[in-house]
Amino acid sequence: MSTTIEILRLRHLRGPNLWTYRAALEAVLDIGALEDRPSNTIEGLYERLTAWLPGLIEHHCGVGERGGFLQRLREGTWAGHIMEHIAIELLNLAGLPTGFGQTRSTDQRGVYKLVIRARQWEVARQAVLDARDLLCAAIDGRAYDVAAAVKQLKALVDRWALGPSTAAIVDAATARRIPHIRLIEGGNLVQLGYGAQLKRIWTAETDRTSAIAEGISRDKDLTKRLLAECGVPVPEGRVVSSVDDAWDAAQDIGLPVVVKPTDANHARGVSLDVRTREELAAAYELAEREGSEVMVERYIPGTEHRVLVVGGRMVAASRGECAWITGDGVHTVRQLIERDINSDPRRGEEEEYPLDTIRLPENRDVMLELRRQGLEPDSVPAAGQRVLVQRTGLLTDDVTDLVHPDIAELTALAARVVGLDIAGIDLVVQDISRPMAEQGGAIVEVNAGPGLLPHLKPANGKPRPVGEAIVAHLFPPGVAGRIPIVGVSGTRATAAVARLIGWLLHRANLATGVACEGRLYLNMQPVPTAGAPSAWEAGQRVLMNRCVQAAVIESSPRSILDEGLAYDRCLIGVVTDVPVPQGLHDHYITTQEQMRKVLRTQVDVVLPEGCAVLNADCEVCAGLAELSDGAVLLYSERPDHLLRAEHVAQGGRFVTVEDGHVVVAQGGNVQPLVPLQHAGVQALVQRVGLPALLAATGAALALELSPELIRAGLEVAAAEVPDL
Q: At what angle do helices 121-140 and 79-93 cross, to 10 degrees?
């Protein structure tokens, strides 16, 4: 009988959650009879797993050292834990490295929660399913095709994960604690930052990339004319309308020439060193297939280079190489390409590879190059005969440190003339370490949205921090793209607290977005939504709104368990209470200590410059203070609370009720803030309760709003705040 492990539920935790700060996959597993069969009792399991997945030796596990997981496997561990490590290793093999994983038992025998980091949900989900199947096969002694599983995962990575250029920028932003939101699933449109501080990127284009400039760069003839008028050396040439016209242009310019589409991209349809009318006719047909006009220009002898310009300065440079094969008198051109070129580990079909695989007859430029030499894919070159296979598009060597200042200046000028903030400048020179003019070099193309892979993964030389350069272009040092975010969690009057805080921020003349109870408000006006968004979806919509200067987002314990928080960090984190949980049995959350672990998420994400606002009347809630990276403000209905003296003595603020006022105590001072006898305040307390009033007051103080604004805002809140 085959072993079975039942996956009861798969959940996508999209933001900070019970387990980790980042997006994760949570699986609930029922391992059934395997609860009585730890790994050390299953014959051959260790040997099969280590043979199929030798990379498991690198998993430290709880032991904290290389081989730690295998030690646990030998000594005895359970199926859920083994599945966790198999899933992580499969993701590593698929090119989506994942270091985080946890497996914990529940209060139901044989049922476990397995959690792994989910950089991409679709890939992580499949990895967990594959891990289950692989483990069951290993337990039963059945065959399992690991290579096929990894191949499928790689296809999912290629379909769903960010491309390498976009990923490099996002990783650089993450390293600077700049948040990001992916705006298209499976696409490369990404938001960096939140609200009014956000910037957008689409691969290597930004929201500073002018549409006019991009249009100019696509028109190669217009680009050349503008560059020439500004003193940038470019090859002579013009647009042609037919093969005869192209030949006339070539005669005027002087052979050899280059034939290419006017909107050539990634060297598609480009033919170099064209010397005869027959070659020109074939090159014209190749260029015309790209769907734009065709141009003929002077051939510049030398080596192709690509210089990346970001924000008006050169940040990286790559040198191209030609692809050659050498005949042996036995093998065909096709076979030699497969053996000597496509076998290069730098080549592949996916975006992660710096060089493309050459396929015949699909690669028309290669076919043209071969025919110029009198060869076809099935021709057999003579022994020792060198055959040029490909001239263009093979940027392989990093030469950033060799670029002459004159060339760096000219490429930066070319980007400015076209108007691009990020540009890939193609130039041809003999030696990039010498001035361009003295060697007759020229800039041949200016490209918008250049690929970053040649600079991230050069075949030779060191990678360049081009993602960091683009992030620095968008966000100067010290700028993290953040707006003030207030997160509110708990079970008591959290929606009322969120609306009151939003109201006070609105009164402070900040365009404020509020997300609570699945509703959205902008400047305290309801925002129509299609359907009922989840707490995570509502929060994300607020943060994607470029008008929003401050945000207040409510997250219930269930929403944290279902999806995680909608933001990575917040300035202010409010927790109203940590009760004994009710109605969370489907999450196996049944004790107050478990509820504490859920709601600590809100405190865990408070920024160092921020503040946690906690209810001192709930002992467990007040105990969350030790988890805050920022300051802590406590509030209580009891002015004689035992925590008051200690907290104030340590420099903290304590909001409470005293002498008919809401007051804040700090150091030796007690400042009255809100008169409780005011009719508007009495109406507010009657509607939302005193604890909600204190929580909102504490959050407003933590936001550094003035006492006068807080008092005036709360006196009229009952009448002015919608849905309170």
A: 120
From the CB of residue 173, how many other CB atoms can be counted at a distance below 10 Å? 25
Reading the block at residue 356, the tokens are 């493309």
- Joined together, the tokens standing for residue 379 give 């021709």
**The pairing of beta strand 323-326 with beta strand 386-390:** antiparallel
229 pLDDT tier (thresholds 50, 70, 90): very high
Per the listing, tokens 């015309």 go with: 288
| C-alpha distance from residue 403 to each of 3, 316, 319, 397, 433 (Å) | 62, 9, 11, 13, 5
How big, in percent rounded to 5, are the helix, strand and coil portions of the chain? 40, 25, 35
Structure tokens at 446: 């200016």
Residue 125 near residue 69, CB atoms below 8 Å? no
3-state helix/strand/coil string of 589-628: CCCHHHHHHHHHHHHHCEEEEEEEEEECCCHHHHHHHHHC
Which helix (H) or strand (E) covers residue 367, if one does? helix 364-372
Distance between CA atoms of residues 717 and 724, nearest Å: 9
- Largest Cα separation within the chain, whole Å, is 102
Secondary structure (DSSP) of 251-280: HHH-SSEEEEETT--TTTT-EEEE-SHHHH
Smallest CA-to-CA distance from 710 within 650, 667, 670, 664 is with 664
Give the integer Cα–Cα distance in Å for 116 and 98: 8
pLDDT at 265: 63
Domains of the chain: 6-160 (no CATH), 191-233+301-320+391-471 (3.30.470.20), 323-390 (no CATH), 485-720 (3.40.1190.10)
- pTM summary value: 0.91
Q: What totals of helices (H) and strands (E) does the chain contain, helices first? A: 24, 32
**Nearest residue to 126 (alpha-carbon basis) of 94, 80, 162:** 94
Chain centre distance of CA 164: 10
Strand partners, 259: 271, 296
Q: Which two tokens stand for residue 487?
A: 């997160």
Q: Give pairs for 148-152: CB < 8 Å, separation 24+.
A: 149/90, 150/90, 150/93, 150/94, 152/126
Banded pLDDT at 345 (limits 50, 70, 90) = confident
Question: Cα separation of 260 and 293, whole Å?
Answer: 9
Q: pLDDT tens across 399-445, in order? A: 999 999 999 999 999 999 999 999 999 999 999 999 999 999 999 99
For residues 696 and 714, the answer to whether their CB atoms sit within 8 Å is: yes
Would you give the distance in Å from CA 213 to the centre of its chain?
26
SS3 655: strand
Nearest to 313 by CA among 437, 466, 140, 520: 466
Q: How far apart are CA 646 and CA 487, in angstroms?
A: 26
Please, are residues 337 and 389 in contact by the beta-carbon 8 Å criterion? yes
Burial code of 541-567, b = ≥16 C-beta within 10 A, e = fewer? Answer: bbbbbeebbbbbbbbbbbbbbbbbbbb
